[in-house]
């Protein structure tokens, strides 16, 4: 099928995909990027074909965007083929071609998320107009009378593309249970109802049952409703187990193609009652939670800006009649729609509340949205969004509210959250991590994983980030303010920072976000109960607030710079507050000299440095054991100025975890690292200039996890068997040896090795000596979302 004018997108996309399949296994240095591009193409080809089909029914449509993307696909095919001519050692061209592949992938994803979404919407609207009368005429009387029929969706703005994607998953032969997930108010029920009324779905599934479940379902009553729809009568059930058994028998006796929709399910165990080994029977579940029973999961996204505006206008302005109303200022309208964050429930509720209202009401609503207090005047939003929190354990609810401490639209390091939760709520790191996972499964946060093992307790937490929908963040802020245990000072409202009179606050968590224009004119404030302080800013020089002096309970300090070069911190002359700290995290900071502090940090247990400059600091002669007598963890990531570590760091004899990752200039570890006798975990991921481990490392008899992945010049030393406690080894991306050290067979406690395919074969030869060894062949699936941060950051201060 061709587009108008002879443009054929499907063929162009398929040619790029074929080129990738022929190329990627021959150029391992581009494999990550080609895998990502392949995934994108496989996802959008279905949309292209659907666009071809729809386009054939409409004539004389514009095609400028289609022409543009066809050119990009043709260039993409040549780019993929040219990758074959770039050898591994050609760093310059590798970098150039990698960037072009990333840009092509970005272009395709953006086009088919925005342009085709809008194009398809326009096409489908025309088709739906033609089909609407046909649907109304052909609606069977028995369907309209039953109690288990799908509701008629009120509005469907922005759901045509999700409907196509959801149908594709539903029609997969190997899936029995399909989950439709998303936060409350995102339109899951509407999309499910559209699916039930879709002609293609009804042609396949002759019987469709739609059941509202909610948080406290009555199983026998729901099964009874199904019986009444199928048989016009319902038997009596002894109990829930009997109801499920009789339902299974009924479905087996009636070999008809059936689709069961369970709407708003809160508990995975409830779904399992309806899973039967019956052909021609499938289940669609809408839920705020991702459940283990799902064979496939479709995550519903928020509405795009055009669709959000269309839904808001539909909800706000009368569609019939001659009602008199004054159309609001366009800028005000845009601000309100933007403030609804693309959430259909919010757009509908706010839109209806503004119907036929004067301009002053619109202005008031815009102020409410910008100040996060919209929940005060719209209880339905609070009730709908807040119910997801009410069923969580109290500590998990507190963890959710802590997310409001970080600026909106920011990727939050999971390590920062865990540092806060451990000290603020008195839980260990394992519980903190699983609280994060629970918030994710409830769709209250989104997890961004850089690699497959991101977030494992024995993995690198630096590979795990968190994002949150703006409206859910606003809910967290609203609840936090009511409790008074957190004080959030936003960039958009720095009035708290301008007060002249000293003010006392009893909040336990203080988060201050300042913009580029803030001049560090701190007002007088007192925080006697503060245990966590987050300073988030744009600046090349930053004066720490003087009120930190009186923070006598401060345990966690997080300093984040979003500027384009390192920030120099000021006001460290009398840092008495540092003596109470347990965890410190610095991002894009010129690390201050320990000479300025001149006092031991007796309670400090963990230091985290991300994209910091600490070259000058490490050149100083410091007595580390005196300065950090109780330090147990050091985490250094993307600090490219590090060339070597000082020998004095080896005196930290109580250190348990040392992580130095993505430090590409580091060429050697201290010779006396074996003095760290308590060290249990050592991560050296992607320190590309490291070629060997110091011999003294063999003295670390408590070391159970060693990560040398992507240290491309590193090989295992002959003395590796001296690490008697080693249980996990990650050596993926290292130099592939012709053989393993002969002593490797003596690693009797080694349970897990992560490596490349060639090295895996060598380890398999040792299975006779290490029968419990699990060998995992690494499949790189690195997420490159953070490249934008690195490109915009000037690594020279």
Structure description:
- The protein is an alpha/beta fold and 797 residues long.
- The protein is 38% helix and 14% strand.
- The strands form five sheets. Strands 9-11-13-15-17-19-20-21-22-23-24-25-26 form a 13-stranded parallel β-sheet, sandwiched between helices. A five-stranded parallel β-sheet has the order 2-3-4-1-5, with helices on both faces. A three-stranded antiparallel β-sheet has the order 6-8-7.
- Residues 1-7, 56-62, 114-146, 784-788 and 790-797 have low confidence and may be disordered.
- Pfam families: LRR_14 (PF23598), NB-ARC (PF00931), RPW8 (PF05659).
- Residues 1-150 form the RPW8 domain.
- GO terms for molecular function: ADP binding.
- Keywords: Plant defense, Repeat.
The CATH homologous superfamily of the largest domain corresponds to Ribonuclease Inhibitor
What is the approximate shape? globular
Can you name the CATH architecture of the largest domain?
Answer: Alpha-Beta Horseshoe
| Total number of beta strands | 26
- Main sheet: which strands, in order across? 9-11-13-15-17-19-20-21-22-23-24-25-26
What is the arithmetic mean of pLDDT?
81
CATH class of the largest domain: Alpha Beta
Gyration radius (Cα, Å) is 30 Å
The CATH topology of the largest domain is Leucine-rich repeat, LRR (right-handed beta-alpha superhelix)
What is the strand content?
5-15%
Count of discrete alpha- or pi-helical segments spanning 4 or more residues: 26
Q: What class would the helix/strand composition place it in?
A: alpha/beta
Distance between the termini: 56 Å
Portion in helices: 25-40%
Q: Number of folding domains?
A: 5
InterPro entries: AAA+_ATPase (IPR003593), Apaf_helical (IPR042197), LRR_dom_sf (IPR032675), LRR_R13L4/SHOC2-like (IPR055414), NB-ARC (IPR002182), P-loop_NTPase (IPR027417), Powdery_mildew-R_dom (IPR008808), WH-like_DNA-bd_sf (IPR036388)
Organism: Protea cynaroides
Family: Belongs to the disease resistance NB-LRR family.
Pfam family, one: NB-ARC
């Amino acid at each position: 099928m061709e587009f108008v004018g002879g443009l054929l997108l499907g063929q162009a996309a398929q040619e790029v995909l074929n080129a990738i399949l022929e190329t990627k296994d021959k150029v391992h240095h581009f494999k990550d990027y080609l895998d990502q591009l392949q995934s994108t193409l496989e996802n959008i080809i279905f949309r292209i074909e659907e666009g071809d089909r729809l386009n054939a029914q409409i004539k004389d449509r514009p095609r400028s965007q289609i022409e543009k993307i066809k050119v990009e696909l043709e260039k993409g095919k040549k780019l993929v083929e040219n990758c074959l001519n770039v050898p591994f050692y050609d760093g310059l061209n590798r970098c150039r071609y990698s960037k072009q592949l990333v840009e092509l992938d970005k272009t395709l994803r953006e086009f088919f998320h925005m342009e085709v979404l809008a194009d398809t919407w326009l096409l489908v609207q025309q088709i739906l107009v033609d089909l609407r009368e046909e649907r109304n005429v052909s609606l069977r009387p028995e369907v309209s009378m039953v109690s288990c029929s799908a509701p008629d969706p009120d509005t469907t703005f922005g759901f045509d593309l999700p409907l196509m994607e959801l149908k594709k998953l539903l029609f997969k032969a190997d899936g029995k249970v399909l989950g439709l997930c998303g936060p409350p108010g995102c339109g899951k029920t509407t999309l499910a109802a559209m699916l039930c009324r879709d002609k293609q779905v009804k042609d396949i599934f002759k019987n469709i049952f739609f059941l509202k479940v909610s948080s406290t379902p009555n199983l026998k009553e729901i099964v009874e409703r199904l019986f009444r729809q199928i048989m016009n009568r319902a038997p009596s059930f002894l109990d829930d187990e009997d109801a499920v058994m009789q339902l299974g028998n009924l479905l087996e006796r009636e070999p008809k193609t059936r689709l069961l929709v369970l709407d708003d399910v809160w508990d995975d165990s409830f779904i399992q009652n309806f899973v039967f080994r019956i052909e021609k029977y499938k289940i669609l579940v809408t839920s705020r939670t991702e459940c283990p029973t799902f064979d496939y999961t479709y995550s519903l996204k928020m509405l795009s800006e055009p669709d959000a505006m269309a839904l808001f206008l539909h909800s706000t302005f009368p569609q019939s009649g001659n009602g008199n109303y004054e159309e609001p200022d366009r800028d005000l309208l845009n601000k309100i729609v933007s403030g609804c964050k693309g959430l259909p429930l919010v757009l509908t509720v706010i839109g209806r509340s503004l119907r036929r209202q004067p301009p002053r009401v619109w202005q008031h609503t815009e102020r409410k949205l910008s100040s996060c207090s919209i929940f005060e005047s719209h209880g339905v939003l609070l009730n709908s969004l807040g119910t997801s929190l009410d069923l969580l354990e109290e500590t998990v609810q507190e963890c959710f509210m802590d997310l409001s401490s970080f600026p909106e639209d920011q990727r939050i390091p999971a390590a920062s959250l865990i540092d806060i939760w451990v000290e603020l709520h008195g839980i260990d790191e394992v519980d903190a991590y699983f609280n994060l996972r629970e918030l994710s499964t409830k769709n209250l946060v989104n997890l961004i994983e850089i690699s497959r093992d991101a977030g494992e307790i024995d993995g690198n937490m630096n590979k795990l980030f968190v994002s949150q929908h703006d409206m859910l963040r606003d809910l967290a802020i609203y609840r936090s303010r009511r409790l008074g245990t957190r004080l959030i000072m936003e960039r958009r409202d720095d009035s708290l920072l301008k007060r002249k009179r000293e003010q006392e606050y009893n909040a336990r968590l203080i988060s201050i976000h300042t913009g580029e224009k803030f001049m560090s004119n701190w007002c007088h404030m007192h925080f006697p109960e503060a245990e966590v302080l987050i300073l988030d800013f744009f600046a090349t020089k930053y004066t720490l607030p003087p009120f930190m002096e009186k923070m006598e309970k401060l345990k966690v300090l997080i300093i984040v710079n979003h500027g384009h070069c390192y920030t120099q911190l000021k006001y460290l002359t009398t840092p008495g507050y540092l003596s109470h700290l347990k965890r410190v995290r610095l991002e894009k900071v010129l690390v201050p000299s320990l000479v300025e502090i001149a006092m031991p940090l007796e309670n400090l247990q963990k230091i985290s440095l991300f994209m910091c400059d600490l070259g000058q600091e490490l050149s100083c002669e410091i007595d580390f054991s005196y300065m950090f007598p109780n330090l147990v963890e050091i985490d250094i990531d993307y600090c490219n100025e590090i060339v070597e570590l000082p020998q004095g760091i080896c005196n930290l004899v109580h250190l348990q975890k040392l992580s130095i990752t993505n430090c590409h200039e580091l060429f050697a570890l201290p010779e006396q690292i074996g003095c760290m006798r308590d060290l249990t975990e050592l991560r050296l991921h992607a320190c590309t200039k490291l070629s060997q481990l110091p011999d003294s490392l063999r003295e670390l008899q408590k070391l159970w996890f060693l990560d040398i992945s992507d240290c491309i010049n590193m090989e295992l030393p002959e003395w590796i068997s001296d690490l008697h406690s080693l249980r996990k080894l990650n050596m993926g991306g290292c130099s592939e040896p012709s053989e393993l050290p002969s002593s490797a067979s003596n690693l009797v406690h080694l349970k897990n090795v992560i490596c490349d395919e060639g090295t895996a074969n060598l380890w398999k030869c040792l299975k006779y000596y290490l029968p419990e060894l699990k060998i995992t062949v690494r499949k790189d699936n690195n997420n490159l979302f953070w490249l934008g941060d690195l490109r915009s950051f000037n690594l020279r201060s």
